[in-house]
Every structure is written in structure tokens, then in C-alpha cells.
Amino acid sequence: AGEPLTSGIRCCAALRSCFPILTWLPGYNLTWLKMDLIAGLTVGLTAVPQALAYAEVAGLPVQYGLYSAFMGGFIYCIFGTSKDITLGPTAIMSLLCSAYIGGDPVFAVVLTLLCGIIQAGMALLRLGFLLDFISHPVIKGFTCAAAVTIGFGQVKNILGLKEIPQQFYLQVYYTFHKIPEARVGDVILGLCCLFFLVMLTLMKNSLGSSEHEASLLVRSARRLVWSLATMRNALVVIAATGVAYSAEVTGHHFFSLTGKTAEGLPPFKVPPLSETVANGTVITFSDIAKDLGGGLAVIPLMGVLESIAIAKAFSSKNNYRIDANQELFAIGLTNILGSFVSAYPVTGSFGRASESLCFWAGVIVLLSLAFLMPLFFYIPKASLAAVIICAVSPMMDFRVPVQLWRVKRLDLLPFLVTFVVSFWEVQYGIVGGVVVSGFMLLHIVARPKVKVSDHGVLLLELDSGLNFPVTEHLSRLVYKHALQVSPRRCLVLDCAHVSSIDFTVVHELTELLKQFELRGVSMIFAGLKVEFNINRHV
């Protein structure tokens, strides 16, 4: 009787591991439902204008931002393990995608499908550890550079400028060069939107700093203001759209508008695996995959990294654990299914509520697609630019270099390489930072600290594992301090802190033992762990 019971418990645990929704859904109640409906409305009203704005960053028509914003809500509430994030388009993911898809929706959808397959495959093969090789300085260097790139990239929309190149340095030059062509209406509206967004953000932060009020009326007023400040993106975009619509219907074209968008829900269909361009040329799936190139490595990894970094930060703060491989699977599955509704790649972003909130936020996005798309024609680009600038400004954390300088100055190198190169091409910045971090890691492995003491007998104290890159360095030290001096020294090799030894090292130690025997001196291993059993090999 005990064995079937144990098997049943294991089966339930396995199901909960695969479907985290089973851990919280049985205890879900009506009170939580009411709270999540309100929170979902708030997050949905924030997500809709942000999704429209992020599509602009990705170089796609604005409706693709909404196509990408709802699938994650439905999938993540079933498979996700963090209650504080939602899956959808983000500023960084949009910037990365823009570098590979060239504004082509077909390329974006194929990229989404392939990213999802790669991420889900990594989850099934338990390859989440690969993310550990992207160091914190590289991440911070990339996010700071991405924030500057994305933020400055929206200045052209605040100014109402057209025909500005995408490459950052050319963008800076032509933006300043074309300032005399700025449209007054866009400038005034954009600056007003920025002003109100900043003021509402400051109001929300100040309200959150005090939780005790004597008056019930004051507490209610504070909650109302806090809710309005939370929905600031939607409020500002709605107000700006009303102003632009009023101007348009009276025959005044003061503002650069989003323009015509596809109406209604996206059809659920198999992702297009080829494309026929205007001149009749067919671009095959293999051609698209070749053009995407390094994006098939950079975007899946960075998408997962961004999501897991946010999830880990909140899980630590709110005292719960996440499963990195399960998160990887949830993101991968979201991207695979998202490609069937013409989404571009998504990743985790801040949600700050329970798991079911993702579902209700997704519903709000679907309702927007179903009923509000004709109104999006009148959304001024300057208002979306203001939303993006305010969204990415917290990513510009320039305290990081000071912290790196205080902790370990050498870590500034991958940070600066990533930061500077990302202004040329964001993907090269990430690769450059990872390569520099990798070389720094290899140097530590190849040149571990060795304490040399000579008291008539030479003592070498090793502080880490002995792996093949260290063999030449160790041999030089032994010859220099023991075999090439007069008189020759016996050697004690202190291996108390050595946790690993490979075959190349064993072979080199065998050769050193022969040299010691030929010169009539001894080489002794001290503190060696039994499992290495070097003596049996040498």
C-alpha cells in the first residue's frame, strides 16, 4: 500500500514541476480574483502603449507589438514559476531584433519560431548553465548601452524628424544635423508627454514611501493617485491621441501620427517559412536562417538571461524560488506559439502581482486588438517616444562603474568593452564582452596563485585546481626554484586546496618526477585528496 502512495506523491510532484499552475490554482479564491482583475486592468493599460512603442523600436508596424504582448500572459500563468514577471516585448529584445530582422515581419516571425525552439530545446537538455558564462559586468554594460541607444533613438520622434539612419553614430550626427527641420507640434507634445510621465512617476514613488495615514479619506485618495500614476503610460497616450485627433479633424496636421494599422485579431496560422518579395524573388527558409545568423544565438540567450535575472531578483526579495530550466521552457513555448500569431521574440518584464494577472493582462491586449485598432491611427509618435524614453531611463545605471572599481577594477574591462562596442552593433558588444570575460576566466585557470616558500626544502602551495592550461606555468616555477638552482631543492607540492586534476597535469607531474630522480632530489605531494590517487598513475 505504501509503494503506490509513494508513486502517487512522486507523480503529483512531477506534475507540479511541469505545470506550476497546479501549486497555486487549488487555493485560488474569489478575493484574489477581484484583486487580479483590477491589477490586470492596470498592467494591461500599461502594456498596450508600451507594446506599441516597442514595435517602433524593433522597426515593425505597431500592431506587431500587441501581437507579441498577449500569448505570454496565457502561457506563463500555466508554466511560469515567478509571480512577479510577465512575458512580452521589452526594450532590449526589441533593440536586438531590429538589428537582425530589418523591419521585415516575416523575418521577425521566423526568428520568434527558431528562438522558441532553441530555448525549449535548451530547457529539455538542461543547458541553462550556459547563461552563467555571461558575467554581470557584461550584462550591465549592455543594458546601459542599450538604454542610451534606445532612448536617443526616440529623440527623432520627439522632434518629428524623418529619414534618420538606424546606426547609432550616424543617428547622432543626422539628428543634430536636422534639428532645424524639427516640427514644433511634435516637440511641444513630446516634451509635455515626457513632463507628465516624469511627474506621475515621481508622484507614485513619493506615495509609496509612506504607508500610514490617519484618515481613511486620505488613504483612499492616495490609492487613487497611485493607481492613476501606475497607468501613466495609457493616460498620457490617450490624452495625446485626443489632442492629435482634434487637430486632424479640424484640418491641422501638427503631429506625426502612427498611421494605418491592421485591424482585428491576428489569425492563428502556421508561421511563414518563406517570403516572396515585390520583384517576385522567393526568399527560402534557409536564406532567412542564414540572414538571421548570430541572432539565433544572441537573442535566445539574452531573452532568457533578461527574464531569469528579473525573476531571480524578485524571488530573492519575496522569499520564493524559481526553476531556471522551467522559466526557459515557458519562454521557449511562448515564442513557439507566439510565432503562430505573428509575434516577435518576447522575454520577461516586471509584473509585480500574482500569476493569474498575466492572464487578465493578456485579455486586455486582445480586447485592444479586437476593438481599438482604428483609433491607433491617431496616436502621435512623439507620445510613444516619450513612453519609451521613460521606460528605459532606469536602465541607465551609471553607478555600476564605481561599484566595479571598488570591488574589482579588472571587471571594468568587460563592462567598458560591452558598453562601447554596443554603440557600433549591440550583438557585437555582447559577444565582445563575453570574449573578454572568457579570457579573464581562462587566465585565472591558467595562472592560479602559487605561494612559493624556501626553507631548504621548496614548498609550493596551490590555491585551486590543476587543469591542463596550468602545466607549463607549474613546470616553469618548479624548474626555476628547485631544479635550476644550486644546490637543487627537494620539492613539497601542497595540494590541500586542489579540487581537480586532469590527465595532462598527471602526465606533466610524471615528467617532473623523472627529472627530480635524475638530479637526486625528491618531489613529495602533501594534502592530496585520496580520490585523485596520483601515485597510482605516476
From TrEMBL:
Main subcellular location of this protein, as a coarse class: membrane
Transmembrane annotation, as ranges = 61-78, 85-101, 107-125, 137-155, 184-203, 224-247, 295-315, 327-347, 359-379, 386-406, 426-446
InterPro entries in alphabetical order: S04_transporter_CS (IPR018045), SLC26A/SulP_dom (IPR011547), SLC26A/SulP_fam (IPR001902), STAS_dom (IPR002645), STAS_dom_sf (IPR036513)
**What is the membrane topology here?**
Multi-pass membrane protein
Residues annotated as domain STAS = 456-538
A GO molecular function annotation here is:
secondary active sulfate transmembrane transporter activity
Q: What is this protein called?
A: Sodium-independent sulfate anion transporter-like
> Which source organism does the UniProt entry give?
Sinocyclocheilus grahami
Q: Gene that codes for this?
A: slc26a11
